[in-house]
Amino acid sequence: MSQINxxxxxxxxxxxxxxxxxxxxKDEVPLVTTNAISDITATSATSGGDITSDGSSNxxxxxxxxxxETSPTIANNKTIDGFGEGGFSSSxxxxxxxxxxxxxxxxxxxxxxxxxxxISFTTIGQPPSPGAMPATxxxxxxxxxxxxVNANFLSTAVTFEYGSSTNYGDTINAxxxxxxxxxxxxxxxxxxxxxxxxxYHFRVKTVNQLxxxxxxxxxxxxxxxxxxxxxYNTVTIGSQVWMKENxxxxxxxxxxxxxxTAQATLDITSETSPxxxxxxxxxxxxxxxxxxxxxxxxxxxxxxxxIPTESEWTTLTDYLSNNGYGFGGNMNYIAKSxxxxxxxxxxxxxxxxGNDQGSNNSSGFTGLPGGGRYSTGVMNFVTYHxxxxxxxxxxxKFAYFRCIGYIPAAVxxxxxxxxxxxxxxxxxxx
Length: 430
Known about the structure:
The chain has about 425 residues and is mostly beta strands. Helix content is about 10%, strand content about 35%. The protein is rod-shaped.
């Protein structure tokens, strides 16, 4: 074979090999790795990749694709993170909380799309976690509802439900709604237009993309307001609703002033039907009223409330005796269950109101040792006895009262001159 023919053959072989290599390279997609998942939250994560070969042509698109199913492709969710060879970072968003995802990087050229190794991960998050907190700033017609909520890393809507029963009926958004993050957050809202001296239920409701949860049911009593604008806490004991504080009003329900004296020590024994009230020597203990004042037809108690009769006092004491409020299991020793937790003269005898005062007041009545005022103007029994009028007369010029402290472990029923000044608790009408 001549040298010319040999040269021609070599050229032909080189051309064939070049064409073969070029044809094979057209079929090659890029090679890419997948970066480990980092910065995982409830709604996002970070990954990426590194293109180790662009294949048969330049990389025109790259990124990460993901799905809740295995082997995600660019037909699923994906990022687009530029072009060309080298490393890249990808932000995966939006994601769902507490969800398992499959991820792999991709790189595309004219020949097609190549995928990196598959990695799986789970986003953080769960349904919200509410915590109950008592209502605060309670007045006659308003209150602040409170709770804590852990959003568990997902945007969480927070509302409060409230009403006069566990059916609630009213709903209001929390001031902080919606909330995010992974720690307990205090939430609250002020509610208005409530009915005075009414028992309310409330709970917090929380909603995120993974579910709806409720806080525990809590309750509160709106306060009672008298004609002077004084607010009172109330308490339900058995079937009755009582004021938890002694009456403070200086006026009858219609606004008329209850007869008062400039001299706290004025002797009124010569008067036949004195209608008076005086400030107590201890300001928090309310005011002292004569029987004639509390039974006046103009009424000293707020509308819907009245001075308890002797039989209504008995309803209270019977309830306590029959429902385990007696000290040491003795059904007669119920005075401690009515007595406030401080203010009493110390007493060394277990079961008496002045002994271990911190254990008093299991009923919530919060009875104070206000004593009373003789018609001569002398105060007596303060810090020793709590004494309250009933509206029932025992005889002409005398009426029944109830007392704790006189017989230290029991509730005592007695009679006083209707000219005496005693403290008052009002009872809600049936």
